Amino acid sequence: QVQLVQSGAEVKKPGASVKVSCKAFGYTFTSYYVHWVRQAPGQGLEWMGMVNPSGGSTTYAQKFQGRVTMTSDTSANTVYMEVNSLRSEDTAVHYCARIGAVSSWAFDSWGQGTLITVSS
Amino acid sequence: DIQMTQSPSSLSASVGDRVTITCRANQSISNFLNWYQQKPGKAPKLLIYAAFSLQSGVPSRFSGSGSGTDFTLTISSLQLEDFASYYCQQSFSTPYTFGQGTKLEIK
Fold first, then answer.
1. Of residues A45, A59, A103, nearest to B44 (C-beta)
2. Do residues B33 and B52 make contact, with C-beta atoms less than 8 angstroms apart?
3. Which of A17, A106, B8, B18 could join B34 in a cystine, given CB atoms 3.0 to 4.6 angstroms apart?
4. Chain centroid to CA A109: how far?
């Protein structure tokens, strides 16, 4: 069945970088965009950006421009998100989710989430 | 950016109650509006897509309506498993913004 499986939790110091993976199973990888959404402790959902695995084009939320990079590897059915210059406010659960015309532009499958903790 | 405003931010209700959550966009988004349910420690789950279409496997007590700027999610008869947080989200244009969420609690 359709599954998005993310890499494990990370603990980083301020100023460091982190790279999170999201591996897709059970569907044609290039038929859906993959988006990243984060959720700080006790807070709501925040859209970060998206990558099109077919071609690799990206769109980022303005607040993450220049600090976040999303990439895809079609040979591994995996997308990656790298966040640089981490600060304490980046402590959050980060989710990947797929979306496409087939799902009527809704996030119909989500990864389990990856907690990134930024602390000195 | 399109701003999504959800109300109420929290709601207390009893099993069997009918509950309505509203979501308003600050510009027209046609029917590009989706609703998600999230339980503590879990990823969000898609309930309603394209404003009123029920996602496969979601109970029929959930329904959505609206178009343009004003949307509602209705739960016709609350069950214990429905106590959770709910989010609306627009997919009309990037950034794909979410409402701030509604926490549904047991009265």
1. A45
2. no
3. A106
4. 13
Q: Which chain A residues have a beta carbon less than 8 Å from that of B96?
A: 35, 47, 50
Alpha-carbon distance B54 to nearest alpha carbon in chain A (angstroms): 12
Tokens matching residue A25: 């199973």
- Phi/psi region, residue B51 (left: phi>0; alpha: psi -120 to 50; beta: rest), is left
What is the reported pLDDT for A102? 82
Structure confidence by residue, pLDDT tens digits, B70-98: 999 999 999 999 999 999 999 999 999 99
Asked if A100 reaches chain B (Cβ–Cβ under 8 Å), the answer is no
pLDDT digits over B22-63, tens only? Answer: 999 999 999 999 999 999 999 999 999 999 999 999 999 999
* Pairing state between β B45-49 and B19-25: unpaired
What average pLDDT values come out for chain A (120 residues) when binned by 10 residues? 97 98 97 97 97 95 96 97 97 96 92 98
Amino acid letter, residue A46: E
Output the CA–CA distances (angstroms, integers) from residue B49 to A70, B8, B58, in the order listed: 26, 21, 11
Interchain CB contact of A73 with B (< 8 Å): no
Shortest Cα–Cα distance, B96 to chain A (Å): 6
How far out from the chain centre does Cα A1 lie? 20
Record: contact B94-A59, CB cut-off 8 A: yes
